[in-house]
Write a structure and sequence with these properties.
mainly alpha, Transferase(Phosphotransferase), domain 1
């Protein structure tokens, strides 16, 4: 994290697991709490994984806690599905780990309640409930960053056009 006191700007930079899109040889390209669904599912990924991570980081900066604090990828995916829903069938079908996380009807395998004490049900919590945030513009921005399908998730240039980002420049 880099700050500039003159412009009051903040920059988050982490190239630790960076790679070129054309050279996707590693499965560990993001820290678990900020890992995009396509990375967990071992699908091809692109720079939109960074938009996912950015949405997670914004929520953590707002709440002081990770939004999706899974202890492993299974639990990570459960936290994600609890707020963002179930990935569509196409993502699961193309996934190299689809059989590990979903049954033949594309229903997720969930960790049994007695194993960890909590059963996370897909789409059972809203982002508003998870964050206790009431800022509609901010929540809309983060929701668009946390779109499960990377084809529908914003690019960085699209995100820059959101009213919440523009409102920051007006202040």
């Amino acid at each position: 994290m880099i700050t500039d006191k003159k412009t009051e700007s903040l920059k988050l930079v982490d190239y630790g697991s960076g790679c070129f899109v054309s050279e996707q040889v590693y499965t560990y390209v993001q820290s678990r709490f900020y890992r995009a669904p396509e990375v967990i599912l071992r699908l091809p990924y692109n720079e939109k994984v960074d938009i996912w991570s950015f949405g997670c980081i914004l929520m953590e900066l707002y709440t002081g806690e990770p939004l999706f604090p899974g202890n492993n990828e299974q639990e990570q995916l459960e936290y994600i599905m609890e707020v963002c829903g179930i990935p569509d069938k196409e993502m699961v079908q193309k996934s190299r780990k689809g059989d590990y996380y979903f049954d033949e009807e594309f229903s997720p395998f969930l960790i049994e309640e007695d194993q960890v004490g909590i059963l996370r049900i897909p789409s059972s919590r809203t982002l508003e409930e998870a964050s206790k945030c009431r800022d509609k513009l901010f929540l809309d921005f983060v929701k668009r960053c946390l779109e499960l399908d990377p084809k529908k998730r914003w690019s960085a240039s699209q995100a820059l056009q959101h009213e919440w980002i523009k409102s920051l420049h007006k202040q």
